[in-house]
């Protein structure tokens, strides 16, 4: 049943050797890895205006120079990451770069922020997309959280089906969204050039504005740079590309950067020229679309593709998180299960954990996008800074041909990223403080996990110890509850292992019972020693454990090993189990976890 | 930790031999076993008036003849149950009587209704008591369900502490309640006799009333007989009495019947004479008390002891349910765990199950007493009828000295109980239909459980089969995941059991891994055969199971037994477990439940 449902949802299992067929070409990779970055255009420009409006609408012209700053930042990031792709063709992005050049702990910080950030990617994209839908159908608004959760479950299932299939589903909405925004920007600019838009809707550039401050402009810039989240995804996912993977990845990165720059500038410019004011209910993109087309088909096409790409942007998280988790697991910061490929060759554990954690985040933040975005943005700029710094150290250390220009690019990237990170903490502290609390906790946990694995590895390594002393013989303890086929079966087995060292143990609660059982036993099995342990407090485990301790002490002296054989009868149907005292399970768990006893379970299958 | 909390809540464990000290004397027994029956006085008379008011207040005089009918019914039940006590001195009440005389399935019906009824006893008493409290403090009213649940948890804990201790706590409120009602009735009658109460408050007996019907009177009678619930409790609990148990029980029963008759008649009479009309907010007893004393100390004393006895009446359920469950479990209708005495010598499983089920009932009925009472009453009269009928059959069959008078008593009891049962179904069908749905389901489940135990017993009994064929030798399969101390340890153990029949099994996911591991293994353990099972679909269990099947088939031919040894390393701290793939647990569960393989777990305890 369960396995049939699994087959239906995620498809037939794939052989390990089918892995090569799952690689991405550039067109699909652009769709799958860029949806996060491109969809940021839907909320990035708005974030700038939201800060400026706190002074006055006259300050909107500042969005143009701020957008230029963001474009410079984008250029620096694209150039820097292009260098990272060629320098680290096996992927891993910020984590690997920071780890190899700055050391394991800066790497851990970069990687942990990225892991958390991918969870935020999923939460932010899905809730933003849900907002877009429920804005269109206000009656659904109170079900926001449930709708968002359903989307996460859907995307998780798609990801479990495997990389290529998700990409086929994803490709259309991403390109449709790009097409829709191109049409919007093109028609908008055409309208402006042909004089259909009044030039009085906006204040001209350079108009003096009362009350503007450097702090406010920095805050607006930091907000606007949230449009750059998702830029690093390609550098983490190079192994997913078709060969030659680094070249294809670099080309895809440049294509994505260009698209992002064009769309971002276009939206900022139109918003400025049309004099759009951000309001609670309607998004900036939606206002531009309405002014350009009116509420016709094109308006709904733009709104629809925006909602779709926002939700599917979550997929970037699903591509990048499991791959980064593999690096983390290989470095022993998180459990090894993250390195195992599922039936469809995706890293299913990473995919599932990502889905579950983002659902928890959505519930914790009650589906409110605006509270998630600042956390999300600051979480991106920490690894940006660390990876660029790592590259700077690398160039200084290795000094390859042409290293000076490479050094300049990465130094610029590192400085700008550092400045943006600091701006976030300075200008939006009330929103981003949780990063300062939770990131150190997560890093500490990862650190402890690594320590544990290292200690286990040391203990298991054969070279570290003398070879074990051979076992001279076996003593078998057989707890019995009566004289039945189950006991006969186990006794038979015990005799085949060690015919002369068997001790049957009976734990009576009443004195009378004790004598009666001993008599019955000696009649039935005169050769097998029986020990009865009267238990006045009606516990089986306590007297049994004490007895085993005694036997073990004696056996240990002559290098004998003690084995406890537990007869367990297994009913035909699962529900029958609740009708039988599960003493054997309790005894087994108690012995294994608290004592160094070998426990053998002899099953006795009932036939009806 | 857990065990310290347990000690604090329920006290130190008692030895089995301390059982005798826990027996009840008559005074305590009356308190513990009669609180249910006596507390019914608080709602029984009101139930009669609630039916009569549907015609008019003039019909209230009918409560006097109806109450006489109830008293006759009470007399018949007390006499009948007195005979049951002496005929069945080991207790078990309706279940044992019906089973022994009418057969196992009528017994099952009687016992099942009683079991369900004890759950209803707890639910009804606690919710009625909660109502009394929240009537006094209306601001608590919306928390009715929570308050009731807290009471159930409290009473459950008290019951787990043991019979005597609960009784000591119980004795005071029960006797205080009896005292309070005696004072109320005494003062009330004194006031009437001294002419302080106007004779015009009530219509005189025999006044003709328009619209009265036989149906309505029967309905009122059925409602009034809900005051008799709890009468059977003593006959179920005879083993709890001090010796001579049957005599003490019979005396306690008569004392209880007398008290019940006096209190019931007194309340009905005062309600009639004072012309009390039942209203939603204030109970009949409360109205009588207010008219007699005004809102002074005595009024609150009566209200307080009423609330207390209602809640503590639940304790009758806690005494009777676990004892009846023991009979049921001994007859294999319910799981054997109900026959095990807990640390304090009470049947803890029965007590806990009762607590949980009554909490579920309270939640399902949202704490509404009025919906629970009819179910409760009808559930009592089914076993009343069956047990009396059983006694009739017994007397006819055995014909002891004086059997004719005994026969007459039980026949009267049986007939009256049957009539009351039928009245319930005829006059209150909309309220009692769930009995017709759920009782058959419960009975069917109990029947199936018995069939299962019987079939298991047949299969386990030694006499039924040939003695098992001795095992010729052992083949040991050892799944290995690497070359570590854990594997070395298990291999050592395997060699001590069967040095020449060990097969190590390795399941690689990649072809390259296969050859490398084989080479390493042969260098390390040249004498131990290694089988590698390449698993292209990355499953360990599937190839392993197939391999074990093959080995088992071959081994079976020459009477060899296959044992799978599973190395399991046990980390120092519990939370470390989540850091390691729990493959060994999965493999073990799979093998034990699906195949007839013996599984040995060799623990390897990590030291840090």
TrEMBL record, chains A, B:
The chain crosses the membrane at residues 48-81, 102-125, 145-163, 170-193, 205-231, 252-276, 296-329, 350-367, 373-395, 407-426, 432-449. The keyword Transmembrane helix applies. It is a multi-pass membrane protein. GO terms for molecular function: transmembrane transporter activity. Pfam families: AA_permease_2. Gene3D superfamilies: Amino acid/polyamine transporter I. One of its GO terms (cellular component) is membrane. Keywords: Membrane, Transmembrane, Transmembrane helix. The keyword NADP does not apply. It comes from the Bacteria. It is found in: Membrane. This is APC family permease. It comes from Paenibacillus psychroresistens. The lineage of its organism: Bacteria, Bacillati, Bacillota, Bacilli, Bacillales.
